[in-house]
Design a protein that fits this description.
By secondary structure, this protein is an alpha/beta fold. The protein is built from five helices and ten strands, in the order H-E-H-E-H-E-H-E-E-E-E-H-E-E-E. Strand 7, helix 5 and strand 8 form a beta-alpha-beta unit.
Length: about 160
């Protein structure tokens, strides 16, 4: 479905809540030159690095350990050149200097697990990072109440 909307192969893809990395692996197989940034909980980041390493034996993955030793803890677009994937926890997103750089942002089924404050925070970054002609692919239930709030997709920022 994403391919139908992409006018050209995306250089940079951001997936928020990518689980163990299955969609990221499929995207990488189709868009070999794309840099894929995964923002998820640390436990998911661990699964992502394991799964993606098993799918792509020679891939380079930038992890939170790499991020912690980086000067100023700021990740810029140029820093991604040597990596196929970036797997970071949510608190690192504010240190990504990727303004107007991302071609495709994806969230499937995880925003419904967040409260509205967290969703708004992610939307602020989506607006900041996504190129003007970029695509935001969002698949979530219309309404869910398990996060402590009643979350409706119609109320997304």
């Amino acid at each position: 479905q994403v391919q139908n909307f992409m006018k050209k192969p995306p250089s940079y893809i951001l997936e928020i809540g990518g689980g163990y990395g299955s969609l990221a692996a499929k995207l990488k197989k189709f868009y070999k030159d794309s840099k894929i940034i995964l923002i998820d909980l640390p436990e998911a980041n661990l699964l992502q690095t394991y799964y993606l390493s098993s799918c792509f034996e020679k891939c380079n993955i930038f992890t939170y350990e790499d991020f912690k030793i980086k000067k100023n803890n700021v990740l810029q677009k140029e820093d991604l050149n040597n990596f196929d994937f970036v797997a970071l926890p949510p608190w690192c997103i504010e240190k990504l200097s990727l303004n107007n750089s991302i071609d495709l942002v994806i969230n499937t089924r995880s925003m419904m697990e967040m409260n509205m404050k967290t969703i708004k925070n992610y939307f602020d970054y989506i607006h900041k990072f996504l190129k003007t002609d970029g695509i935001f692919y969002n698949v979530n239930k219309y309404e869910k109440t398990t996060s402590g709030d009643t979350i409706k997709i119609s109320n997304y920022p």
